[in-house]
Request: fold
Amino acid sequence: MLRVVSLVLLAMALVSADVVLLNDNDGTEGRSLCVRTCSGTTGMGGTSWIDYHSSMGMHTGIDMTECEFVAPPNVVTTLNGKSHHWMAKGGSATYTITETSFRVYVYTKDATSTVQQAKDLKWSITWIAVGYAC
Reply:
């Protein structure tokens, strides 16, 4: 009996959830019952920064495979760190968004000069994605 009551309460919560996704990055509309929110971080000190354009910038790839999106989601990012990340540009600019991954490029000329400095300063990307799971 407890299991049935739990399932009914869960179904009511899912039906009454106030989550609306107007459209995703492919322009797909509807399917509000299939909306999923997924978030993560590359981890302070654990980000795989790659040099881009001779120390003018760097990029990192984000793997969202575990989110199990069926189309490219809407993604918001932020650049975090211990120091100097406030001088960088582009930490919120996402590129090549697919249902399983995206990339962030950061212009760093005014903030730091090497990938190693960004690693030492524990720069990371925190992200949240909202998309369809069915």
Summary: The first strand starts at residue 35 and ends at 41. The chain has a mean pLDDT of 80. The CA atoms of residues 40 and 127 lie 6 Å apart.
